[in-house]
C-alpha cells in the first residue's frame, strides 16, 4: 500500500497541493479525477518522488519513500508522464526494453526479454515492434509507452492521462488491460483521467481533487454521485444506470 500523509506542495508561493491524505491499494485500479489545475499530475509526481514535497510523508509498503534508494524505488513504482516521450530514433521494441533498465542496466537477460515480450503481447504491439516510434500514430505511440511502463514490472503503476490520442476501441482495450493487471496480477494502478465515464466503468477507487485539495478518496460508488461530481466540476452532472454501469451525463 502507498500511504500519503498530509502532503503539501508549493510552487512559487502558490499552494498546489494542500494536506493530502489518502491510501492506494494493490489489486485496485484507482482513477484520479478533477478539473484542470486540480493538482492531479503534481500529486502523481510527488507520490513517486519526481518532485520534492514541502510537507508530509509518503510511505510505500510501510517504508518511508525518502528511505528508498533510487534503483530500489524504480523496481517498486513506475510512472508514465505526458512529458516522458522521446524523439530518439528507436523501434517500438527498443523503447519497451527501456522498462527493464532498473534490472539489467542495458544488458538484458532471458527474464528481461520475457518481460518485454509479455508487454508487447499485452498491448498487441508485436506486429509493429520493428517500426521506428517516429512513424507511429499518436495512439500507437501511446500504447508503446504504456508497454514500456508495464515491462518495468512494478507493483505500483502510475499513468498520467494514458488515454490521450487513443480512439474508443484502444481506450477501452487499455482500460481493460489495466483492470486485468490490477485484479489478476495484484498491481496497484493509478491513472489520471478526464473522462469520468471511463473512471466510473473501470475503477475500483476514485480520488477526486479540486484546487489542490482532496475532495474525496473512496470506492467509486461513493464518488460517482450527482452531488459530488456537480460540486467537483461546478456544473450539473446527472447519473444514469445503463447495464449496471453508472454513466455521467453532462451535456446541455
UniProtKB/TrEMBL annotation:
Molecular functions per Gene Ontology: ATP binding; ATP hydrolysis activity
PROSITE patterns assigned to the protein according to its UniProt record, in alphabetical order: ABC_TRANSPORTER_2
Gene3D superfamilies tied to this protein: P-loop containing nucleotide triphosphate hydrolases
Transmembrane segments: none
UniProt main location, coarse: membrane
Nucleotide-binding in keyword set: yes
Membrane topology, record value: Peripheral membrane protein
Keywords: ATP-binding, Cell membrane, Ion transport, Iron, Iron transport, Membrane, Nucleotide-binding, Transport
InterPro entries: AAA+_ATPase (IPR003593), ABC_transporter-like_ATP-bd (IPR003439), P-loop_NTPase (IPR027417), Siderophore_ABC-ATPase (IPR051535)
ABC transporter domain location: 2-236
One family name in Pfam for this protein: ABC_tran
GO BP: any one term: iron ion transport
Subcellular location: Cell membrane
Keyword Ion transport: yes
Cellular-component GO terms for this entry: plasma membrane
CDD domains for the chain: ABC_Iron-Siderophores_B12_Hemin
Protein name per Swiss-Prot or TrEMBL: Iron compound ABC transporter, ATP-binding protein, putative
Organism: Staphylococcus simiae CCM 7213 = CCUG 51256
Species lineage: Bacteria, Bacillati, Bacillota, Bacilli, Bacillales
Amino acid at each position: 500500500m502507498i500511504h500519503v500523509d498530509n502532503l503539501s506542495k508549493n510552487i512559487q508561493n502558490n499552494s498546489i497541493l494542500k494536506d493530502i491524505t489518502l491510501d492506494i491499494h494493490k489489486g485496485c485500479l484507482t482513477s484520479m479525477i478533477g478539473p484542470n489545475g486540480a493538482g492531479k499530475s503534481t500529486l502523481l509526481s510527488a507520490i513517486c518522488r519526481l518532485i520534492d514535497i514541502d510537507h508530509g510523508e509518503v510511505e510505500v509498503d510501510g517504508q518511508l519513500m525518502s528511505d528508498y534508494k533510487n534503483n530500489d524505488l524504480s523496481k517498486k513504482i513506475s510512472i508514465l508522464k505526458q512529458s516522458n516521450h522521446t524523439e530518439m530514433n528507436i523501434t517500438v521494441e527498443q523503447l519497451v526494453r527501456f522498462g527493464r533498465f532498473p534490472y539489467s542496466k542495458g544488458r538484458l537477460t532471458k527474464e528481461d526479454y520475457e518481460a518485454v515480450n509479455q508487454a508487447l503481447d499485452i498491448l498487441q504491439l508485436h506486429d509493429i515492434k520493428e517500426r521506428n516510434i517516429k512513424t507511429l500514430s499518436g495512439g500507437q505511440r501511446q500504447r508503446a509507452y504504456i508497454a514500456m511502463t508495464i515491462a518495468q514490472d512494478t507493483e505500483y503503476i502510475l499513468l498520467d492521462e494514458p488515454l490521450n490520442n487513443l480512439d474508443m476501441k484502444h481506450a477501452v482495450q487499455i482500460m481493460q488491460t489495466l483492470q486485468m493487471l490490477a485484479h489478476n496480477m495484484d498491481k496497484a494502478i493509478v491513472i489520471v483521467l478526464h473522462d469520468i465515464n471511463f473512471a466510473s466503468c473501470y475503477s475500483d477507487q476514485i480520488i477526486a481533487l479540486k484546487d489542490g485539495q482532496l475532495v474525496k478518496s473512496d470506492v467509486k460508488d461513493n464518488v460517482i454521485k450527482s452531488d459530488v461530481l456537480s460540486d467537483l466540476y461546478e456544473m450539473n452532472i446527472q447519473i444514469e444506470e445503463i447495464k449496471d454501469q453508472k454513466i455521467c451525463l453532462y451535456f446541455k
